Task: inverse folding
DNA sequence: TGCATGTATCGACATTTGTCGATACATTGA
DNA sequence: TCAATGTATCGACAAATGTCGATACATGCA
């Protein structure tokens, strides 16, 4: 699976963009994070999950609000999870998604302390 | 010119991603900002410009460090400028680029105050 | 005026990305 | 065990993106 290989190390990901020249690997890694944020559907999914009661949302409850197919929503949620921005926990038939605030904060901090 | 139309309004751009459901237009606008950050070459250009003496860099001095063609660098610089992340000032034969810190900060703040 | 130099644009191309419908997988409940 | 339901994957496709070489544009200098 490409997914697990691509999963991002939250710790070592985020040098400061404006604090000196980025190496190519550093830039590559950082870009992966921002790529995950670079789509309106994913941003809305993030915001909906964060806003859900107890901070978790069933992916089936997200399809309606964003107005996309089940398959498309599933795809975007996988990308967000790959980027470390959310976790997906399987509970019976459902998948509960939760934002990973540390990861969001890490990307924020990369744009300046 | 597509460029001027697409140029982003720094003021009205950046609702908080995690502070409640984003509307589609809000998400669209935010995504434009992150899209500009979602490429390693552009991240490196940003970091190089920020690191340059007096915070400005001639675009001809950036081609070597990032290892890309003049045409490619020009293209990326235009995208960064469209996103409001840098300014380009034409000085004689050269173009001086400077980071727009407020714009970077605005995107950072969208990821949480 | 003509040439050298820095920048932007154009055309082309391969790759990536977002989207969908169809279908496979998994789990619960009857 | 079987059917219903939530999720993931597959295959396909159009659109967007990153890249390059070639070329046009602009500006300063000899």
Result:
């Amino acid at each position: 699976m490409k997914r697990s290989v691509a999963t991002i190390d939250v710790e070592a990901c985020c040098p400061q963009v404006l604090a000196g020249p980025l190496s190519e690997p550093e830039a590559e890694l950082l870009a992966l994070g921002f790529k995950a944020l670079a789509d309106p559907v994913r941003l809305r999914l993030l915001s909906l999950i964060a806003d859900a009661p107890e901070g978790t949302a069933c992916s089936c409850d997200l399809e309606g609000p964003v107005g996309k197919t089940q398959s498309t929503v599933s795809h975007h949620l996988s990308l967000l999870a790959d980027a470390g921005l959310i976790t997906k926990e399987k509970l019976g038939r459902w998948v509960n998604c939760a934002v990973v605030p540390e990861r969001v904060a890490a990307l924020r901090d990369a744009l300046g302390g």
Q: What stands out?
A: Residues 1-6 of chain A have pLDDT under 50 and may be disordered. The two ends of chain A are 35 Å apart (CA to CA). Chain A has six helices and three strands. Chain A touches chain B through 35 residues (CB under 8 Å).
